[in-house]
């Protein structure tokens, strides 16, 4: 009896997860796959169309434009965040640093703020006619910039919001990697006459490679799914310049074009997985370094 | 580099970074307390303080309903996370059972599933169940999440087996051991899980905005976004000053609860992220 209850116990403990996942994860996933091969628009009868939805998307310029927008956002965000995150982490890693806790709190505070609330602040701060940023530019004699109204600036302005909000998180993740470096390693390197720069490239960077790869993967997922920022701040405009892959997918929902939407989401997942794999491979430690 | 004493340049850089991160929050909160016209006329100075923006905002949007709905979802969805994820983590960390590795593999795989793939079929599932515009739609999907289980497993795996065996010798049942031995030991990890879960649920936007379209069930973030959209939708003719005052007031009041929780529990929170992340 006792033995039997022990055998059942672990299954009972994990059962709730599998119940919830089955009902609201696996089932919708299979449903989505089926849906992606069907034409279903508005109230019309659903019918099987094979790969038509996929073909439609792959030959549709709006789809490619949304991927392009997300790719530009990725380029504007991920490399800058890696460099800034590593810089911040190196500055904070010092055990003798005073006010360390205070700095950590300051850096990660934006990560805690609701994105919708900060998106609203961005609307006010970057307004072309009355916003704070243009007010400051005018003070030093520079002309107004259409931060959210020109196609050239809309993406960088949204990327800045994303960077502001998540770079503190990147700093903490990289700090975790840095703290795994035994202090003696640097002293030994100093004794061997290695310069600080050399120590940075030969000790610090290889040791945080895995944390960097982790960051690249989760930020790739986040950037290609980016939704709240463009939805609230620009509604995808001006001229579709901030219609990210995530926002474009949402447009299928508002247009009740669910078959195409499902196909779009699978294409997006394939792309994100591919990008993540490539990033991880590029950041994988070279032979000989752990 | 870490053996050198931190220099002035390092403090200067850190302070500069801290200002960059904190200034937008400070500006939003301080501006929300200024007379509306001043936000546009003199965005940098703070003179007279007033609650007018807050009064106008409370009159215009059902932000109280938003807070109540978010609170309810937090309590129930967060409660499910806090009860079931440590239990599952305990099973994966301390029990041996057939198919364990396969089942844990499924948990890890679901970690990589982007929310976006599920949105459309989940929405259809909700309408088939008649759950659109209901609390269950907001609460049940994702209520027992893979990340929390994975992270609880890591935390519980660090407990020495001897401690658990000692409980068994004392004759406690498996659930008794979990409750009396495991939970007290992982209290810091639970605190961090609570903060992370609160943050995720409180800030969640994509699913609530899709699953709910009536005012009665909107969560705080959805209420906020409709405010912004009404404003950008009616740009022409809108009185910018008033509207911005309301936007900043709504944003500030939405930020406040999380910022307070975060400042109070920041040590747990940051250590939680540190522990849950991949170490170099």
UniProtKB/TrEMBL annotation, chain A:
It comes from the Bacteria. The chain crosses the membrane at residues 12-33, 71-93, 105-125, 162-186, 207-228, 265-283. Residues 67-279 form the ABC transmembrane type-1 domain. GO terms for molecular function: hydrolase activity. The keyword Cell membrane applies. It is a multi-pass membrane protein. One of its GO terms (biological process) is transmembrane transport. InterPro entries: MetI-like, MetI-like_sf, UgpAE/MalFG_permease. It is found in: Cell membrane. CDD domains: TM_PBP2. Keywords: Cell membrane, Hydrolase, Membrane, Transmembrane, Transmembrane helix, Transport. GO terms for cellular component: plasma membrane. Its EC number is 3.6.3.17. The keyword Protease does not apply. PANTHER family: BLL4140 PROTEIN, DIACETYLCHITOBIOSE UPTAKE SYSTEM PERMEASE PROTEIN DASB. Belongs to the binding-protein-dependent transport system permease family. This is L-arabinose transport system permease protein araP. It comes from Nonomuraea gerenzanensis.
TrEMBL record, chain B:
It is found in: Cell membrane. GO terms for cellular component: plasma membrane. Keywords: Cell membrane, Membrane, Transmembrane, Transmembrane helix, Transport. Its main location: membrane. InterPro entries: MetI-like, MetI-like_sf. Residues 67-265 form the ABC transmembrane type-1 domain. It is a multi-pass membrane protein. Signal peptide: none annotated. GO terms for biological process: transmembrane transport. The chain crosses the membrane at residues 12-29, 67-90, 102-124, 247-265. PANTHER family: ABC TRANSPORTER PERMEASE PROTEIN MG189-RELATED (PTHR43744:SF12), ABC TRANSPORTER PERMEASE PROTEIN MG189-RELATED-RELATED (PTHR43744). Belongs to the binding-protein-dependent transport system permease family. This is N-Acetyl-D-glucosamine ABC transport system, permease protein 2. It comes from Nonomuraea gerenzanensis.
């Amino acid at each position: 009896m006792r033995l039997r209850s022990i055998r059942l116990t672990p299954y009972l403990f994990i059962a709730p997860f599998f119940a919830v996942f089955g009902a609201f994860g696996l089932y919708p996933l299979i449903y989505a796959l089926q849906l992606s091969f069907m034409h279903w628009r508005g109230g019309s009868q659903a019918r099987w169309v094979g790969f038509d939805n996929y073909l439609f998307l792959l030959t549709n310029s709006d789809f490619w434009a949304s991927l392009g927008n997300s790719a530009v956002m990725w380029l504007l965000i991920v490399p800058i965040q890696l460099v800034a995150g590593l810089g911040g982490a190196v500055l904070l890693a010092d055990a003798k640093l005073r006010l360390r806790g205070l700095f950590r709190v300051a850096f990660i505070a934006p990560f805690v703020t609701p994105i919708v609330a900060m998106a609203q602040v961005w609307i006010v701060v970057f307004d072309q006619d009355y916003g704070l940023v243009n007010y400051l530019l005018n003070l030093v004699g520079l002309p107004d910039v259409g931060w959210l109204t020109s196609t050239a600036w809309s993406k960088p302005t949204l990327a800045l919001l994303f960077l502001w909000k998540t770079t503190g998180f990147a700093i903490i993740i990289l700090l975790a990697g840095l703290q795994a470096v035994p202090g003696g390693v640097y002293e030994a390197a100093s004794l061997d006459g290695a310069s600080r720069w050399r120590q940075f490239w030969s000790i610090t960077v290889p040791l945080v490679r895995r944390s960097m790869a982790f960051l690249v993967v989760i930020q790739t997922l986040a950037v290609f799914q980016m939704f709240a920022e463009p939805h609230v701040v620009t509604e995808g405009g001006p001229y579709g310049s901030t219609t990210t892959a995530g926002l474009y997918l949402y447009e299928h929902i508002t247009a009740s074009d669910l078959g195409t939407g499902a196909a779009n989401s699978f294409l997006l997942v394939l792309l994100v997985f591919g990008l993540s794999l490539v990033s991880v491979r590029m950041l994988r430690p070279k032979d000989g370094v752990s | 580099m870490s053996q050198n004493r931190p220099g002035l340049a390092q403090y200067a850089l850190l302070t500069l970074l801290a200002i960059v991160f904190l200034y937008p929050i400070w500006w939003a909160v301080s501006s929300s307390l200024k007379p509306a016209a001043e936000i546009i006329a003199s965005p940098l100075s703070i003179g007279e303080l007033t609650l007018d923006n807050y009064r106008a905002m409370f009159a215009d949007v059902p932000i109280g309903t938003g807070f109540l709905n978010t609170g309810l979802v937090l309590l129930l969805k967060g409660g499910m996370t806090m009860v079931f994820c440590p239990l599952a983590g305990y099973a994966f960390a301390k029990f041996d059972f057939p198919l364990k590795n396969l089942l844990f593999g499924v948990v890890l795989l679901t970690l990589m599933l982007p929310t976006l793939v599920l949105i459309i079929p989940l929405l259809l599932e909700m309408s088939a169940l008649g759950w659109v515009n209901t609390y269950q739609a907001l609460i049940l999907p994702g209520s027992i999440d893979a990340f929390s289980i994975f992270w609880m497993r890591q935390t519980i795996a660090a407990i020495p087996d001897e401690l658990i065996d000692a409980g068994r010798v004392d004759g406690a049942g498996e659930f008794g051991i979990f409750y009396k031995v495991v939970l007290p030991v992982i209290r810091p990890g639970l605190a961090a899980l609570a903060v992370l879960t609160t943050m995720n649920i409180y800030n969640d936007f994509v699913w609530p905005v899709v699953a709910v379209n009536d005012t009665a069930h909107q969560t705080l973030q959805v209420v906020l976004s409709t405010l912004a959209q009404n404003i950008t939708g009616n740009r022409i003719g809108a009185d910018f000053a008033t509207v911005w005052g309301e936007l900043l007031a709504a944003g500030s009041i939405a930020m406040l609860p999380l910022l307070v929780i975060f400042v109070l529990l920041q040590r747990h929170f940051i250590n939680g992220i540190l522990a849950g992340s991949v170490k170099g």
